[in-house]
Specification:
220 residues, 12 strands, 17% helix
């Protein structure tokens, strides 16, 4: 489950720079985050396709997966993997769920959403976030926006991240992060669009849910 929260943090950080910067000036990710919250209040639900690759330290290639992601501000995020195996992850507020298609039982967790990496970016004021993260935004070649993020207090799952937005600053294009062991995870997003499927943020009703007594281990 920790892997899900890492992905949530990175996606939220990408979205933190959605507002278009003044040409020639470096964008401010924290000011952009405040703009984002106002904009997404009217944008509604967003959906995109993605391709994920995971390259272990010391290797030049690794596993590839793909699927779709749905986001609904302030604190709902769903990832559906379709290739090579169908599995889903959902976070809404202080609850999180994970399940595999075709299996009768999934897992349900209680979380502190204002403390989880990613969800805190969507919920806490910028002044509080600046105490947790170091963020640098710059204008990249081709007009795209490059975001560099680093937790001020070292985290178990991530030590550095690079994120790229489209030239208009409105949608994420790619993100890459490196963990403390040197493993690299990369995402490529495509076809961001607005949708209206609020039922996606309801966990499957027919599923039997178990709740682990301790935090779930990483999914890798």
């Amino acid at each position: 489950m920790r892997r899900l929260f890492v992905v949530t943090w990175l996606l939220a950080a990408l979205l933190a720079a959605l507002s278009e910067p003044v040409r020639g000036e470096e964008p401010d990710p924290w000011k952009s985050l405040e703009t984002l919250r106002s904009a997404l209040a009217t944008d509604g639900q967003l959906s995109a396709g993605f391709e994920e690759s995971y390259v272990p330290a010391g290797f030049s290639s690794g596993d590839t997966e793909s699927g779709s992601v749905d986001l609904s501000i302030p604190d709902c995020l769903r990832w559906d993997y379709t290739e090579p195996y169908r599995k889903s992850f959902l976070v809404c507020g202080d609850r999180a769920w994970s399940w595999v298609e075709g299996e009768p039982r999934g897992q349900r967790y209680t979380i502190q959403s204002d403390r989880e990496m990613g969800l805190d970016l969507l919920l806490l004021p910028s002044a509080e976030l600046a105490k947790r993260y170091k963020a640098k935004a710059s204008n990249a070649p081709g007009g795209e926006i490059e975001i560099e993020l680093e937790p001020l207090v070292p985290e178990e799952d991530i030590v550095a991240a690079n994120l790229r937005l489209a030239a208009d600053g409105r949608r994420p294009v790619a993100l890459d992060w490196r963990d403390k062991e040197g493993n690299v995870t990369s995402f490529r997003f495509r076809d961001w669009r607005r949708v209206d499927q609020p039922s996606l943020f309801d966990p499957p009703a027919a599923m039997e849910w178990s709740q682990p007594s301790a935090a779930a281990p990483g999914l890798r």
